[in-house]
Amino acid sequence: MQVGKIVKFGYHILIVDDVTENIQVVMHVLREQNYQFSFATSGAEALALVEQQEFDLILLDVMMPGLSGFDVCQQIKARPTLHDDIPIIFLTAKTDIDSISKGFELGAVDYIVKPFHAEELIARVGNHLELSHSRKLLEFHNISLQKKMEGKEQRIARELENYQKDMIRVLTTLMESTSDETGKHIRRVAEISRLLAETHPCVSDEEAQIIYHAAPMHDIGKIAIPHDLVHKPGKLTEAEFSTMRSHTVKAHEFLKHSDRLIMKAADIIALQHHEKWDGSGYPAGLKGEEIHLYGRIVALADVFDALTHKRSYKDAWSVDEAVDYIQQLRGIHFDPELVDIFIAHRDELAAIVTS
Fold first, then answer.
1. For residues 193 and 211, what is the distance between their CA atoms, to the nearest angstrom?
2. How far is CA 269 from CA 192, 193, 292, 324, in A?
3. What is the pTM of this model?
């Protein structure tokens, strides 16, 4: 008999025994079960075969020269390159309880003592093959189901995210028509905010994208402020300024009911982008890191763009004038760390406001 010979039938079984007559007996007993057989006469040959191809079950002798059956079993179960889920049945003349216990401890699924009855071998091999097949089939269905569920959840998440973005586009378009915020200003604030977020050490890539999509909502509350007041060219009275400041709280009333990431971020930004680092801002007089980072980022972006563009109540400042102003308010109006990031990237930011 030539080592490594394969007789092709159904399940693929590897028989390992240093005595070829024992291998022939096993194959003879199992010949009518539609199995495919490979065999090896040493532990090293068995490991080489397992490296090369997949088997549905291994019948393994214990007492062999070189690597024992226990050694082979241990290596198969320990090496990730091998198929450590192959059911292994020890088929051996060793009958002492210590050997039987060791076989199971090493991961074998069964232990058959020689000489065996043909019916016993047929039944045990058949049972373990069917159990292994059922387990693999169950794992396959579980994985398939999990992938389907994950795919469905991802699709739903994308749809919800797109819905949020669509809602923001609708609301910002409405805001453009009812306030002094132009579409270009809204887009520039979003771009400035994203750059500041992407270069901030505490902001993830995902958060930077959330800030980018939420930033256009910073003044959404102005749609609830009288049109004439929003567009008043002169200085506001104290009462008018109080009304104007309420746009932050009104935005919060619009947005506070959503628990979606982008809408929650928009809520934070709209409510807090007029807070100041020293606590002198509005509406809550928050101070320092009491102000959410999202609000601090958009506050700086909004002021920089507003300074560098003409409004009904002011002329446009130069980029240098705006940068100097922001530096002067470091630690007063603006987060000092954000101002440092702003200065480090002033050329990129200047390109945004002058585009």
1. 7
2. 14, 11, 8, 24
3. 0.56
